Amino acid sequence: MTHPDVAAGAALLDGTYVPSPIPRIRDQVAGFEASSGTRDNTLEDRPVIILTTVGASSLKVRKNPLIRALEGDVYVVVASAAGAPEDPQWYRNLTAHPVVRLQDGPTVDLRIAREVHGDEKDHWWQVAESFWPHFPEYREKAEGRDIPVVVLEPVD
Prior knowledge:
The protein has helices at 6-12, 23-34, 89-96, 118-131, 135-141, and strands at 42-43, 46-54, 61-67, 70-71, 74-78, 99-104, 107-115, 149-154. It is an alpha+beta fold. The chain has a single domain (6-154), classed as Electron Transport, Fmn-binding Protein, Chain A (Pnp Oxidase, Chain A, Roll). Strands 1, 2, 3, 4, 5, 6, 7 and 8 form an eight-stranded antiparallel sheet that branches. The model has no long low-confidence stretch (mean pLDDT 94). The radius of gyration is 15 Å and the shape is globular. The chain is 31% helix and 29% strand. InterPro entries: F420H2_quin_Rdtase, Split_barrel_FMN-bd.
């Protein structure tokens, strides 16, 4: 997949990193990155990736550990926020700046984020749920919020 803004988006990802104010997230990202993904690389014994985005308005670099879910070479991330009533900030960031960086273990690459809808969304929900058993309960807790599902596709 090609995207005309990949170079500009990649440059933004090299900007100023602002660690999460949430200690669990901040510490997991730090441990994961310091060890090239050999430490702090799970949530409830399931693998995570580190998703790097650019702040929608701040343009600061943000990092979040998310469940590792993929099919082939395409990753899927679910903006469930554990069923919270609002979308997580990382989702707003990647909708504003769809060029993201993904770290899976020692492998780091650029991706293009694309929200999916309809039948494609149904398919990717199934993929995501096969990796993380809590997504169905998060959908219930969201009480009608249409939880966004986003694929992270390779940059050609």
